[in-house]
């Protein structure tokens, strides 16, 4: 993956630092505002009216103060960035997972199939051979579909929330700076209502986008699994190969991830969208107008990120590492088994079970931790956070 930003992932702090240099003035102001030290920045210019020696000392002193202020501003930017990532990992994502899991498990329902098969075993008359085969085929496909969907959906939701929070974080940070620098500026900062409406889009995946994702994964899984007999023994590598092929088939359709997380034209279904806070006591109708435009712009930014190559690349890295995590779970069932592998039919319950593990135990989900620890994810977030076209601030 010869892409510069991915190669530079070990230099995330320095990326942010470079960016901080470029936006020095606004950062200093923002930092000063919060840290109460804006005077340091403005003060040094007016120092030194006395003797030359004194002047030089003052200039040196001012330079030192400025450097300190710059360092503080950079550190503050860095810590603001870190706090955004933490909020995403520990609060926002876990709060959305239960709905995602419920929706996925009701769309890819395995319990009905297994019940029928168990009944068929107890009462051999109840199922014809053909029906039984049919049920097994379905169980085979859906077990993989559930887990591949869980891997993709968790990665998608994780990245989507990070994109949103980093875009928001950047805007909020600069609103603060801008207000301070240009009090007369007519610019209206992001209202809470805009922020809420923006965040509401994170629900689109489980609400609607999942249907399309399940459909696409199902098609891919059917193609790959159609010719695989249930009795055939699979080694761990064979099993990984099946997952890889489903992924490759999915990728070959070049289905853009964006369609699973954003509605066409950015219009949320009614039951998802947050009602406009157009209470009668709010006299500013213009404000609501402005809100729509701001939201429109935020959504355009989000969409631009989602269709970018950078996003596709980091998404691939995430799904790969989810697959590694799943294979680690499955490794356990191979311990003590013969080298010849395990019949595919016997692998279906643990394969489907990995899908549950991906979306469960919210306070300590190892898959969320894997994503949070990926340096590529950090680099990507830093890119989104610092992807500023707000040159007016520079
Ligand atoms: C957002 O994108 C749409 C479609 O490309 C465009 O018509 C609209 O003007 C954009 N809105 C803003 C605020 O940039
Ligand atoms: C950066 O911004 C540009 C233009 O606004 C956009 O096209 C691009 O996708 C963005 N990239 C990232 C990673 O945010």
UniProtKB/TrEMBL annotation:
Please verify whether the record's keywords include Cell cycle.
no
GO BP term, example: protein import into peroxisome membrane
Which parts pass through the membrane?
Answer: 27-44
CC terms in the record's Gene Ontology section: peroxisomal membrane
Pfam families in the cross-refs: Peroxin-3 (PF04882)
Keyword list (alphabetical) reads:
Membrane, Transmembrane, Transmembrane helix
Single GO term (MF): protein-macromolecule adaptor activity
Protein name, UniProt field: Peroxin-3
Species: Physcomitrium patens (Spreading-leaved earth moss)
Lineage at the top is: Eukaryota, Viridiplantae, Streptophyta, Embryophyta, Bryophyta
């Amino acid at each position: 993956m010869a892409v510069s930003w991915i190669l530079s992932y070990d230099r995330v702090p320095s990326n942010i630092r470079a960016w901080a240099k470029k936006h020095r003035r606004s950062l200093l102001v923002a930092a000063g505002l919060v840290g109460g030290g804006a005077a340091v920045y403005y003060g040094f210019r007016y120092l030194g009216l006395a003797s030359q020696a004194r002047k030089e000392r003052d200039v040196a002193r001012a330079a030192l103060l400025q450097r300190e202020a710059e360092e503080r501003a950079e550190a503050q930017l860095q810590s603001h960035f870190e706090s955004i990532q933490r909020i995403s990992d520990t609060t926002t994502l876990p709060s959305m997972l239960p709905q995602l899991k419920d929706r996925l498990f009701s769309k890819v329902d395995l319990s009905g199939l297994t019940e029928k098969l168990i009944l068929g075993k107890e009462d051999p008359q109840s199922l014809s051979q053909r029906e039984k085969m049919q049920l097994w085929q379905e169980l085979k496909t859906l077990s993989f579909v559930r887990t591949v969907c869980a891997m993709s959906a968790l990665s998608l939701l994780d990245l989507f929330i990070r994109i949103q929070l980093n875009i928001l974080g950047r805007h909020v940070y600069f609103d603060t700076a801008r207000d301070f620098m240009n009090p007369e500026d007519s610019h209206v900062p992001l209202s809470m209502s805009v922020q809420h409406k923006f965040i509401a889009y994170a629900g689109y995946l489980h609400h609607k986008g999942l249907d399309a994702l399940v459909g696409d994964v199902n098609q891919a899984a059917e193609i790959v699994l159609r010719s695989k007999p249930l009795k055939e023994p699979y080694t761990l590598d064979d099993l990984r190969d099946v997952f890889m092929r489903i992924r490759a088939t999915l990728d070959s359709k070049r289905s853009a991830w964006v369609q699973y997380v954003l509605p066409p034209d950015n219009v949320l279904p009614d039951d998802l969208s947050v009602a406009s806070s157009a209470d009668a006591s709010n006299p500013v109708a213009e404000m609501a107008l402005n809100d729509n435009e701001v939201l429109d712009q935020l959504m355009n930014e989000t969409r631009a990120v989602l269709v970018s190559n950078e996003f596709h690349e980091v998404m691939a890295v995430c799904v790969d590492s989810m697959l590694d995590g799943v294979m680690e779970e499955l490794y356990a069932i191979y311990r003590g088994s013969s080298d010849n592998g395990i019949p595919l039919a016997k692998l279906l319950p643990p394969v489907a079970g990995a899908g549950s593990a991906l979306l469960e135990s919210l306070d300590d989900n190892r898959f969320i931790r894997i994503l949070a620890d990926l340096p590529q994810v950090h680099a990507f977030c830093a890119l989104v956070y610092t992807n500023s076209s707000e040159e007016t601030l520079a």
